[in-house]
Amino acid sequence: MKLSVLGRSTYVYTAGRRFEPRLPSIVFIHGGEQDHSTWALQCRYFAYHGRNVLVPDLPGHGRTAGPPLGTIADLAGWIGELLLAAGIESTALAGHSMGSLIALEFAARHPQRVTRLALLGASAPMPVAPPLLDAAKTNSHSALDMINVWSHGNRAQIGGNTAPGIWMLGMNMRLMERQAPNVLYADFNACNSYAPAAAAIGKVKCPVLMVAGSRDQMTPLRATQALQELLPHAQTIVLEGAGHALMAEQPDAVLDALIAFL
Amino acid sequence: MAAPKSLGFDTLSLHAGQQPDPLYGARATPIYQTTSFVFKDTDHAAALFNMERAGHVYSRISNPTCSVLEERIAALEGGIGAIATASGQAALHLAIATLMGAESHIVASSALYGGSHNLLHYTLPRFGIATTFVNPRDVDAFRAAIRPNTRLLFGETLGNPGLDVLNVPRVAEVAHAAGLPLLVDATFTTPYLMQPFALGADLVYHSATKFLGGHGVAIGGVLVDSGKFDWEASGKFALLSEPYAGFHDMVFDEESTVAAFLLRARREGLRDFGACMSPTTAFNILQGVETLPLRMQRHVENTRAVVAFLAAHAAVDAVVYPELPNHPDHELAKKLLPKGCGAIFTFSVKGGRAAGRRFIDALRVFSHLANVGDAKSLVIHPASTTHFRMDEAALRAAGIGEGTIRLSVGLEAVDDLIEDLGRALYASQKA
Fold it and tell me: Which CATH number does the domain A2-261 belong to among 3.40.50.1820, 3.40.50.11690, 3.40.980.10, 3.40.50.300?
């Protein structure tokens, strides 16, 4: 569906279902240089099992008008406006990578509005390697090449996809190539400059699930574990062999973890 | 920081799409020769049917062995995914049927495989799909033939029988300027010799029966999507960008930003037309793909030697191969096909139809049959077989002379091939 969020034309995937105010909602937030379709193998299940599912394309991504927002704080504020536009008072949030920071920031600001928080491929801070940031700044394709290799575990480099006939590396590359110039740099800057205080993170009171890949090179497991120390009530599930592209690499394991938690 | 390295073509040919079997550790791809797959429970079954989870339900729609082949070819082409089909013809039909219905139009190269020409010229008009054929060397003709209801531009990377080299970058530009995708049949070149997506094509298909398999034991096709074409932005593909009543009003290009075409092709095309590949066929073709780079190198080496021999032979009128300076697409071939122009070409024996027949009958190593792209060398004389009903004028219109011979050069010792051809040429000239 299309919503106007602060006057910005915003696309929200709902798995083809109408919004039902009486049902609980889950908002899925995608990562940098991605769009809603990165959640395709997880969110649809919930839409057909008693939830409203809202999977927005973030500003400047996919079908949502630009420009991209440059900070996690602004993106978290935008999620608040999105919920207002959709008429949702409280919701569960699931975020991946940059999306996990947006979800975390929103939950820290509005603990009463978030019922559950799922953080996938998460770390805070989330520093971006300087060569990658430099390549993103000039819109060099080498940035996408680096991401594609570093985002997928060794198994995923070979393939053997759960989704029949889909070459995972090709899918991810094309989705990144679809995003407008400067989006990646804006996203990476937002991640790189996000430095939440421990006290702020400590305001998150709802149940928290963290899902991490044992072979993640973008948000390494040790960085996820460092974040978990600030969220002592969080549970962490480690997916053996998975890299950063968790939802594509191990779609069923991610969905099972979300079903058990959400 | 060192730049990250992706796996190379040769490695992907052997490995892409397959993890060792998780139950027994089998290194080779298992043949999942089963029609259907047991659900874990009713919720799992419903989730698979409703695309809430990925997985296999019924082998007409998808199968693990076929899926390995699909991923592997997609990886080699630089695409996002693929669909294995019952034949190359089934792949072409699946592409067309996914993109258009009645009252649609295609602009196609006139230099097509006979089977493709039959489908477009004789059969599809019965279903309301018309085709305008244009000279593949005339890029402007593609542009001029586009109508408001055109939905596809189509050609072969190397045309038939004149080995016209399709100017993929320029024809793709014409297609994209009109908001249309370009589909190419890359059977003669394989992803080893040309990767059409890198040149601008949007969809590629292969008759996997030919070089991909190489062994000549299995009929199959593969349709590959680059994921580059923006169906929504084009505004011409309601089949992909508007609700589909046949699957809960799914809007394919919302469901998958880049794989909308493959989604509909599998969920509608394989489901309803049913031209799927069998798992055993996928296994057979995978055996060939493992050695594709090595075989294509040898195919090209042998072909170059055979072409040089024939071009210098007194009993030969003309050799049609783009690597020869007198071929009309010689310069374009150097640019688009730097690794070689494949292993299929034609030449003319002096003495017309009768000499052609004597030539074929004298061959010992070359097999006389109607196929190409086998590991074994193949030959056919169109004037006495595939085109035997045509008189000389009709043959000429089709670009075929009475003495035209088509060779598909295999992997045998090249001196054996040259000796065989030399003996047969000698025989051809004896009245």
Answer: 3.40.50.1820
State how many domains chain B has: 2
Query: Residues B60-104: pLDDT tens digits?
Result: 999 999 999 999 999 999 999 999 999 999 999 999 999 999 999
Tokens of B422: 């030399």
Do B19 and A160 make contact, defined as CB atoms within 8 angstroms?
A: yes
Q: How far is CA B401 from the centre of its chain?
A: 25
Quick one: B334 and B406 in the same domain?
yes
pLDDT digits over B380-389, tens only? 988 778 777 7
In chain B, residues 261-300 whose CB comes closer than 8 Å to chain A? 262, 266
Please state the pTM of the whole predicted model. 0.97
Quick check: B218 and B285 in contact, CB under 8 A? yes
Number of neighbours of residue B242 by Cβ within 10 angstroms: 14
B115 by Cβ neighbours in 10 Å (0-12 / 13-18 / 19+) ranks as: middle
- Check if the interface score ipTM surpasses 0.85: yes
- Report d(CA A98, CA B195) in Å as an integer: 34
Q: Tokens in use for B269? A: 């095309």
- For chain B, state the CA radius of gyration: 22
> Chain B partners of A35 at a C-beta cutoff of 8 Å?
257
B75 → closest Cβ in A167, A251, A255 = A167
CATH number of the domain enclosing B409:
3.90.1150.10
Interface contact B72, partner A, CB < 8 A: yes
Is B280 found in the same domain as B313?
A: no
Round to whole Å and give the CA distance between B21 and B39.
Answer: 19
Task: Write out the residue range of the structural domain in which residue B14 sits.
Answer: 9-289
One-letter identity of residue B213 = G
Cβ-based neighbours of A14, under 8 Å, separated by 6 or more? A1, A47, A52, A53, A54, A55
CB A245 within 8 A of CB A102: no
Sheet hosting strand B344-349, strand order edge to edge: B316-320, B344-349, B404-408, B378-380, B367-368
Distance CA B203, CA B224 (A): 6
C-beta of residue B212 within 8 angstroms of C-beta of residue B354 = no
Q: Are residues B149 and B261 in the same domain?
A: yes
Q: Are residues B417 and B285 in the same domain?
A: no
d(CA A158, CA A147): 16
pLDDT digits (tens, 9 = 90+) for B165-183: 999 999 999 999 999 999 9
Q: In Å, how far are A82, A95, A210, B392 from A27, measured between CA atoms?
A: 10, 8, 16, 70
C-alpha separations of A244 from A120, A187, B159 in Å: 9, 16, 44
